[in-house]
């Protein structure tokens, strides 16, 4: 990539490797993750991202796998990213640690969208899935956010994501109604990617297809009637939402980059193969034009793996390797982390 290239990159990064919750759907409920020492992206590294990577970005998210508000001065990261003027800048959060100063920074940075993850429409379901969370606090934080944004000169979109598992999928239509009442401007309903060690397979919806189709159709109709865009990503209800029969080849090696808190640069955040380089040691230009990326790009052009991340094996050296996510969180930790 050369500096005169137009903005075309999709950038996914995490500024830390921690979370305040242990959701049933997430690798943070893997008991090994607890023992990984906290790591925060240094200001210098983040500045390098802002100077070298974000000027090429059309889209950037300041969180992907972990909780952005665990980064103590996330506000300053947000403000610095805002100066790069990425057309679509967002972050994804559980929302519970949101404070006025974050919201002020969202406006100053001209954030395009804040995504809040809410896996239940009532306290019992939400707190059962989002372990460690409080539904009451969530509602307060959403009200704080919508209130702040509605009084501001710039209004970021507010997207709510709900992951669907056995414990909550039957309430998806009620949840959509509630998210609209709360002020969501976009909604996403998604089935889950599995991770090892957390027992998620048993919570997935392979055996609930007809009920799933019914409830997702209702959810879709409610959102459509309210004029709220809704995205549905469901493997077990293939006729609803995203057309799974028509998925394009993965474009991660052409225009996507994922950056871990320790500086590793990868084509995506589920990448379990060698990183393309590390921003502590190389410039982004060196990494982007370097041999590892070129070799992977040639492989992807030849093999054309589809862009369906839940069952992707192109991102793994060994298709049975299911621990890439864990290794990513542990990056830079002592080589031998204790196993339970
Ligand atoms: C991993 S979280 C990180 C950001 C933040 N902590 C949050 O919960 O929004 C990013 C998104 O992934 C969703 N998620 C969690 N577990 C998932 C799974 N197994 N498959 C797909 N999405 C998942 C979350 O609900 C959230 O919307
Ligand atoms: S989904 Fe988000 S909030 Fe829940 S444990 Fe994972 S990173 Fe934390
Ligand atoms: S399809 Fe595979 S390589 Fe492409 S973005 Fe998804 S997980 Fe990554």
Verbal overview:
- The protein has 340 residues and is α/β, with parallel strands linked by helices.
- The protein contains 11 helices and 10 strands.
- Strands 7-6-5-4-3-2-1-8-9-10 form a 10-stranded mixed sheet.
- The chain is globular and about 50 Å long.
- The chain starts with 8 loop residues before the first strand and ends in a 10-residue tail after the last helix.
- The relative contact order is 0.14.
- Residues 334-340 have low confidence and may be disordered.
- Bound molecules: S-adenosylmethionine and iron/sulfur cluster (SF4) (2 copies).
- One iron/sulfur cluster binds at residues 250, 252, 267-268, 270, 305, 307, 309, 312, 314-315.
């Amino acid at each position: 990539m050369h500096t005169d290239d137009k903005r075309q990159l999709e950038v996914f990064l995490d500024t830390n490797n921690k979370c305040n919750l242990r959701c049933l759907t997430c690798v943070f409920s893997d008991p090994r993750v607890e023992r990984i020492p906290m790591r925060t992206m240094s200001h210098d590294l983040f500045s390098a991202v802002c100077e070298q990577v974000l000027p090429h970005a059309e889209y950037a998210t300041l969180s992907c796998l972990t909780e952005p508000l665990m980064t103590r001065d996330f506000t300053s990261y947000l403000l610095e990213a805002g100066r790069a003027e990425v057309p679509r800048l967002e972050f994804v959060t559980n929302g519970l640690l949101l404070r006025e100063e974050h919201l002020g920074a969202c406006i100053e940075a001209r954030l395009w969208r804040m995504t809040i993850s809410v896996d239940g429409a009532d306290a019992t379901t939400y707190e059962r899935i989002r372990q460690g969370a409080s539904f009451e606090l969530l509602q307060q934080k959403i009200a704080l956010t919508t209130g702040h944004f509605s009084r501001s000169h710039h209004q970021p979109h507010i997207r709510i994501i709900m992951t669907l598992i056995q414990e909550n999928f039957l309430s998806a239509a009620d949840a959509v109604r509630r998210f609209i009442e709360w002020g969501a401007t976009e909604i996403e309903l998604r089935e889950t990617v599995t991770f090892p060690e957390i027992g998620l397979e048993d919570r997935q919806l392979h055996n609930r297809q007809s009920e799933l189709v019914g409830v997702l159709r209702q959810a879709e109709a409610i959102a459509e009637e309210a004029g709220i865009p809704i995205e549905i990503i469901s493997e077990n209800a293939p006729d609803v939402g995203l057309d799974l029969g028509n998925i394009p080849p993965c474009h991660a090696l052409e225009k996507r980059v994922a950056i871990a808190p320790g500086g590793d640069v990868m084509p995506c955040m589920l990448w379990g193969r060698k990183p393309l380089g590390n921003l502590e040691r190389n410039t982004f230009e060196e990494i982007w034009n370097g041999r590892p990326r070129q070799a992977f790009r040639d492989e992807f052009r030849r093999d054309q793996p589809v862009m369906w991340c839940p069952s992707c094996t192109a991102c793994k050296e060994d298709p049975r390797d299911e621990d890439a996510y864990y290794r990513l969180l542990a990056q830079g930790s002592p080589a031998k982390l204790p196993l339970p």
